[in-house]
Amino acid sequence: MNEPNGAVNEARPVQVSEGRTARKEATTLRNALLEARGVTRSFGTVQALNGVDFAIHPGEVVGLVGDNGAGKSTLLKILCGALQPSSGQLLVEGSPVVFHSPRDSRERGIEVVYQDLALATELSVLENVFLGREQRRTGILGRFGILDRNAMARDARETLDSLGIEIHDVAARCGLLSGGQRQAVAVAKAIRWGSRVLLLDEPTAALAVMEAEKIGGLVREVVKGEVGVVLVSHNLPQVHELCDRIVVLLRGSIVANLHREDTTVEEIVMWITGAARSRGN
Amino acid sequence: MKEDRVLAQPSVVATTNAGPGKTFRELEDERLAAEGVRRVARNRNFVRRLQSQGLVLVFIVVFVIMWVSSPYFLTTGNLLTAASVVSILGIMAVLETLLVIAGEIDISVGSVMAAVSVLLGLMAAAGMNIWLAAILGLLFSAAVGVINGVVTVYFKINSLVTTLGTYSIFLGLAYALSSTSTVSVGGQGFDVLGSGSVGSIPVPVLFFVGIWLVVAVAARHSRLGRHVYATGDNYDAAVRSGVRADLLRVGLFVAVATSAGLAGIIVTSELGAAAPQIGTSYLLSVITAVILGGASLRGGRGRMVGTLVAVAILGVLQNGFALLQFSTYLEDTVLGCLLIFAVLTDRLVRRAER
Ligand SMILES: Nc1ncnc2c1ncn2[C@@H]1O[C@H](COP(=O)(O)OP(=O)(O)OP(=O)(O)O)[C@@H](O)[C@H]1O
Ligand SMILES: [Mg+2]
Predict the structure, then answer these.
(1) Structural domain boundaries of chain B?
(2) Could you count the other beta carbons within 10 Å of the beta carbon of residue B279?
(3) What does the alpha-carbon distance between residue B297 and residue B283 come to, in Å, rounded to a whole number?
(4) The domain over range B56-353 is classified in CATH as 1.20.58
(5) Smallest Cα–Cα separation from A134: which of B229, B280, B340, B107?
(6) Which residue in A109, A275, B185, B231 is a FRET match for B248, CA 20 to 30 A apart?
(7) pTM of the predicted model, to two decimals?
(8) Which pLDDT tens digit goes with each residue over B156-184?
């Protein structure tokens, strides 16, 4: 749990006082898996994001925190192409990309668990895990788009088992699952397909303590590979425990970029509320 | 229908329940609630089964009533005629079911039928080969589907409004363009579509059963079918998972309109004449069959078997009214009752799931 990741440590970002992160040294060391540069987004007159620079590196869990309406979900949606930035740029491993829709980001191994759960409740667990990536049968039936339910069921079963998620019947409709189980399925789906970056928008919001810890464990497990994770959460103790780096959004701007070992939950709270800024940090 | 589709805005309420400051008791309550959910799950499935079994029961009741009331009802000839007649609406109901599952509705099918029929009449009168005219008629109906789909999907107009518009437009055109004298449409073996039979099975029935089989298998077992369900169930989830939901919906509008075109061609073939008035009666019956079959207007839910049974019920009813020489107006009344009955059961199922 506590092993610090070498690459991330060397690239330890510095705290900044005004809206911009000074992360140049990080990107020169190693290309970020996914990076946003100067991203701005407004909804009508509401400025949801204001020149945000943000990067995710391999093996890193980044906590993204901030008050309600700070722009966390908006940033995540831009990172996966569900929303387009008003201005600014996205880069995948150093090269500029434009994501027109989540289809584009998925192709690059970027998976999202949305705050508002994105499961189809009338479909089964396995159908949800495979939605948009259904496995067809081999041979002539497959040509006609006939699905290989057995193979998908086996795969979904393996995924859930390997993550320790207890769901008895992968053929059961998702509408029959409890809120926590649904969230677990959504996370499992993201982990199953996210080969580069996982963007998790409050994945533990509906979960009991045990389940939330389990998801935390999954996240730590996932980043042992080359995957990077962004975790949005209001559960600050959890964020502090789980994340290598904590980025604080305040009214659409990044106001702090804190390393876990250099900070405390109390300090994070100060940044979130804006108290730290006026302290003249 | 549409409002749910806008990317949901995160509300404060939705996020504060996440909070770190949750007491143990609250968490325990949540866990108990989850337990309850599991128990309710069993109930839900029970109600669903009741819904589909109820449909079969309705069919049996209607069937027995007709059997008792009329000595002609249970003869092979009569049943085949009944099947042939109801197949016209069945063809449309099958595709309309898919569209409703995807969360949309098309009420313009009747006017497309009428317009295609009149179009056939005009082309036949101009001396065109009738089979070529039929193909052009199908293309025309597909084009109407494109209009319905593009206006609804890309301009985000409620499909009820869009198709009410096209319903009016093409029904009006059909009447305006139809000459007062009946144009006969036929020759070149064209009447086989409406009146022919293979063995003893009428051709319209073959069309209906064939289309039903393909769509039923596709809906359940193909990727496209699953995408239709996902689109109607949770549009955002489908799009986020990479389903081309918009293209899919336009495609379904085209499929429904084309099925209406086919139905129009078959009826024209059967009557041997262009008839703009065929459109009006199918509006109510197609939608009734779909909803009676258990497809939910909120999307995401519906089964092709349900539509099949519903079509069979309507077939027996239509046939029975003809045999017993009841007023056709009363037929509308009964259809209306069935429609209400169907939406009430749907509501009941939904409530059981709360
Ligand atoms: N689709 C939208 N249309 C209009 N305004 C929006 C939309 N999405 C977000 N906003 C606005 O942008 C701002 C940032 O919202 P965002 O959802 O990113 O906040 P958040 O940090 O995720 O908050 P929370 O903690 O409540 O989830 C808010 O003021 C919100 O009202
Ligand atoms: Mg949010």
Answers:
(1) 56-353
(2) 27
(3) 16
(4) no
(5) B229
(6) A109
(7) 0.81
(8) 999 999 999 999 999 999 988 887 666 77
